[in-house]
Amino acid sequence: MKLDLKIQPLSSWITAKAQPLLIAGPCSAETEDQLVATAHLLAATGKVTALRAGIWKPRTRPGEFEGIGSIGLEWLKRAKAETGLPTAVEVATAKHVEEALKAGVDILWVGARSTANPFTVQEIADALKGSDVPVMVKNPVNPDISLWIGALERINNAGITKLAAIHRGFSSYEKTAFRNEPMWDLAINLKTHAPELPIICDPSHISGNRELIPYVSQKALDMDMQGLMIESHIDPSVAWTDAKQQVTPSALSELIDRLTLRQPEVVNTQVKDALAELRNKIDKIDDLVIQKLAERMKIVEQIGNYKKDNGITILQVNRWDEILQKRSNYGKALNLHADFTEKLLELIHSESIRKQTEIMNAGQGEAPVQEQLTHS
Ligand code: PEP
Ligand code: MN
Predict the structure, then answer these.
(1) Are 314 and 307 in contact (CB under 8 A)?
(2) What ligand 1 atom has the least distance to the C-alpha of 204?
(3) CB of 138 closer than 6 A to ligand 1?
(4) Which of 19, 132, 243, 368 is packed most tightly, with the most Cβ within 10 A?
(5) Over the stretch 123-181, which tens digit does the pLDDT of each residue have?
(6) Domains and CATH numbers, the chain
(7) CA-to-CA dists, residue 97 to 50, 86, 213, angstroms
(8) From the CA of 316, how far away is ligand 2's center (Å)?
(9) What is the residue-wise DSSP string for 74-142?
(10) pTM, rounded to two decimals
């Protein structure tokens, strides 16, 4: 399903100073000196396109630093006047929007906690009516692409056409190395719904620590995202918020230098031909995989009917354990990552169970397709 968004190209509202497009600045504006000095160092790298700073901070728990508030707008004005960098702030209420627009902030963004709440998004959208300020919409905290799309639509319906999405990762129950799971497939899914919508990656909030930022940044560029938003503080060790994930302007500059920029379009015809041949091979294998899966499902149906006729339960744990064990070992021997083989088998198995449930309970309503299969 293609989304009906009216969007102006990124280049119509932001001109990258260098590649990749980079929005940088502290998580929070803390003092006038901290913000202005950070802005000067960032501008001096020659790599930063816009200065970000949170002045109203949505905090999970009360009592934490909730942002310096409107006074920060004056500091941003000064930073812009002295460095020439356009400014970007997070807005979460109609009042924030009004104040930011009045103060001449160049770009607004909607934070992850706000995107998760349609009432908040609508309030922001209503306050934006009549303005043509660029707005970036972060993905919601929870991995729900509809909320992300809904927020983009609400802002777009308010007449904002200078629109971008920010991928900042998602909360997940499982604790992993990331602060927020990237779930790249969700960002890619958004891209397929709205190919003209620019997506900027926020490796800082995905990583949650400095060490992972280069890896996530490179991956974002390889996924053909249009730019990066990275938190940078003049002295991260004393930052009032997100201290572990902020980098100094000079560390940011080095990090950017180490990234590899690749072409989304292949220009060299020799490379193009070689790639086409390899893709051709992949297409044939994919067709075979699908065909074999369909064959497998036909057999699953036969088994389902057999179990039904003989009053046998659908799930036989031992059999499933055996499949998992044998195939994982086989996959390992063929150089497939154990995790990958397991996930693939689980997906196939859950569809097999769904099919058999349908057969066993014919006439009692259809079994829902497993969550993984509709995950979009
Ligand atoms: C931020 O950018 O500082 C921020 C609060 O991010 P998020 O909304 O992604 O949590
Ligand atoms: Mn932050």
Answers:
(1) yes
(2) 2
(3) yes
(4) 243
(5) 999 999 999 999 999 999 999 999 999 999 999 999 999 999 999 999 998 889 999 99
(6) 10-258 (3.20.20.70), 269-360 (1.20.59.10)
(7) 18, 17, 30
(8) 48
(9) HHHHHHHHHH---EEEEE-SHHHHHHHHHTT-SEEEE-HHHHT-HHHHHHHHHHHTT----EEEEPPSS
(10) 0.86
